[in-house]
């Protein structure tokens, strides 16, 4: 069978294909390991086209990250049973992480890219802190607890989804919630 050359694309379709390939590649490989060549191959275009549309890897990452909003969708913590808040947060976070490529892009890239690190800080400060504030009257205490919860959740995600630490990967979601929920509970309450 003779392979046909790819059909010409419109400018908008090419841009969308590059962004989709970049989001997937940054999520899988992180910022440092993702290459323009790999992204171009995924988008089925010449690497020069990626540079033509975005100028640099940093600009491509910024565009891919801005297209993908990081919404943690933190539930109203005060509405959860008081003794199950930690478990509820862990269960929610695991469900969000496993269902949202944007969180994977953010975590894998935040360690090596300042734009991604800033997005991670903004997402956690802007979303976890207000949710925790509903549990504490003292704003400084709420910020401190929110930061500690973020530390625990990011550490869990890093070990499960990036480093793929075998014991953590092997646990199902229910076991992780049962084991990790009390840690988050202790920080929150």
Structure commentary:
With 189 residues, this protein is mainly α. The chain has two domains: 11-67, Arc Repressor Mutant, subunit A (Orthogonal Bundle), CATH 1.10.10; 77-188, Tetracycline Repressor, domain 2 (Orthogonal Bundle). 74% of the residues lie in helices and 0% in strands. It is built from ten helices and no strands. The longest helix is centred in the C-terminal third of the chain and has 24 residues, at 139-162. It is elongated, with a radius of gyration of 19 Å. It starts with 10 loop residues before the first helix and ends with a helix.
SSE inventory with pairings:
Blueprint: H1 11-33, H2 36-43, H3 47-54, H4 57-67, H5 85-99, H6 101-110, H7 114-133, H8 139-162, H9 166-170, H10 173-188
Helix proportion range: over 70%
**Structural class by secondary-structure content:** mainly alpha
CATH architecture of the largest domain: Orthogonal Bundle
Amount of beta strand: under 5%
Number of helices: 10
The biggest sheet, with number of strands, parallel, antiparallel or mixed sense and barrel status, is: none
CATH C-level of the largest domain: Mainly Alpha
Runs in which pLDDT lies below 50 for 5 or more consecutive residues are: none
Q: Spell out the helices and strands N to C.
A: HHHHHHHHHH
User: Cα distance, first to last residue?
Assistant: 65 Å
| Outline type | elongated
CATH topology of the largest domain: the name is Tetracycline Repressor, domain 2
